[in-house]
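lol so apparently i was supposed to do this last week
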Amino acid sequence: MDVSSPMTSMAAMRSFRRDSSVTGRTLPKGTVRRILGIAGPYRRELTFFLLLVMASSVIGVLTPLLAGDIVNRIARLAGNAGGIVRIALVIAGLAVIDGAISLATRWFSARIGEGVIYDLRSRVFEHVQRMPVAFFTRTQTGALVSRLNNDVIGAQQAFTSTLSGVVSNVIGLVLTAGVMFSLSWQITVLSLVLVPLFVLPARRIGKRLQEITRESYGLNASMNASMTERFNVAGALLVKLFGRPSAEAESFRGRAARVRDIGVLSAMYGRTFFTALTLVAALATALVYGLGGWLAFSGQLSPGDVVALALLLSRLYGPLTALSNVRVDVMSAMVSFDRVFEVLDLRPMIAEASDAVPVPADDRSIEFDHVSFSYPSAADVSLPSLEEVSLPEHGGPVAVLHGVSFRVEPGQLVALVGHSGAGKSTIANLVPRLYDATEGAVRVGGIDVRRATLGSLRDAIGVVSQDAHLFHDSIRANLLYAAPEATEEELWEALDGARIGALIRGLPEGLDTVVGDRGYRMSGGEKQRLAIARVLLKGPGIVILDEATAHLDSESEVAVQHALDTALAGRTSLVIAHRLSTIRSADQILVIDDGRIVESGTHVELLALGGRYADLYRTQFADGERRTVEVA
Ligand SMILES: Nc1ncnc2c1ncn2[C@@H]1O[C@H](COP(=O)(O)OP(=O)(O)O)[C@@H](O)[C@H]1O
Ligand SMILES: [Mg+2]
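anyway here it is w/ magnesium ion bound
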């Protein structure tokens, strides 16, 4: 019988497991229109799909009617046996056609569903990539990625299972109930009366299933987190040195046991659901035979009608059950779409102006003109629905820079010094437009960075920060990321300039050595030198160094410093430094404190002043100098 057709009852089951709280959500206006917009390119497929679903439903009611006809002919023993065989052949033919239709339906629904996934995925990737840095500092990457994946897949299901389910169930239900009604309204009404007997308890089971499913997701996530945290070298060491392995195992066992119990419980709930559905259908079938037989004896029904009714009945309950939860299904699908749209609607705060001009190639000056800045608040860069994967906010926006003005002439080296948290990195971030100034203007080559094309700005500026990031890819690919067109000679020239050519020549696979997280482990100093080679390859007119040697031991520091000397030669440089030799050679030193420039001048001038810089010199740089001199 059809209630036990795995597709229908599985879908109904899944539907009852869905989080029913979605029905409480209100969707912005226009969501439906936008979903139709997404479906637009698949208009042809959708039409075919719907036609096929209808055809299949028609076959679904035709077959029982034909079977009833056969029974009538047998009962009357009239006509010829050949007629019966012909009808049986028609039934067989319909079954074959129905099989073909089912394949074709799946083909169209898969085409539509996968197409929608493809469209949404590429759009979301492209869009998230354009988000400002602030967005990424607030959002946990892993959680964001899985959230987006889930929503995109939820949106796909809207087209495959939800749409096809709703359409085929509605059509099937209307046709089946209509035909049954025309055969015997009494039996149809009685069969329908039985429905709440099943659907109401099913809802309760569905609720309970939602709860325990959610609990087991949480437990699984926390077990996974425990495993990934402890089953790596650093975590394992920590457990060995400080941990209590038996207590850890105990807590793990506790969670695993609960997952086991939930598994058993949910299997039983699931089976109860199916059993109840099958049982109600079986009871109803008995009722049809009993009542139908009685009506047949009184001449109100033919034997064939009774058989047709019994067969049709099996096609009544599946769709009814599935449709009883349709609000939740449709809302879940819409909410998935809505969350994807929400991400696509997030305006990148840093976008290219429509009248943007390239940064002039011949002017490599940097200018800060009364720049004030606060980091954007959560509301500006994040999404309400992403807040669960965002980092908690520490208070409202706080002004970090206050009226900062200075100018770096082409070819000059300007050093920024100051205590940690003074705002040095923030100043450096405003130049390549990782953030936009809240007040005042930052100019590169004489034009406001907000009016410059993003591409020309990126080409004009090279940045080396504390921790250079390398993609998990070959050295060649990492370098070409900065300059896709570079030749082999240019690569080596850059590597030699960054004082790392010799090391790479010594590697068995040379430029094809894979580096990064899971590749060849470069030391901090080697990584920095590769990052410098990347900048050299790009050949920007302006170089920004943000404590490029801060995390290195003295030996690497010397090597990296040599590489940096090459990188800075002949370029406009803004250097956040903690090494005295760099600072001493600066054309100008800006002392930053609490987001303000408090002193400026050369090393000698500032020392003579005997102010903030002289303090810093005594407490920080003099020490470092001694150390470097020793190593050198
Ligand atoms: N992404 C951020 N969001 C909010 N506040 C930030 C962010 N980055 C830095 N800050 C704050 O801005 C101030 C200046 O930081 P930063 O420019 O990194 O200082 P420095 O580089 O001089 O050590 C600090 O108070 C810091 O907490
Ligand atoms: Mg910093």
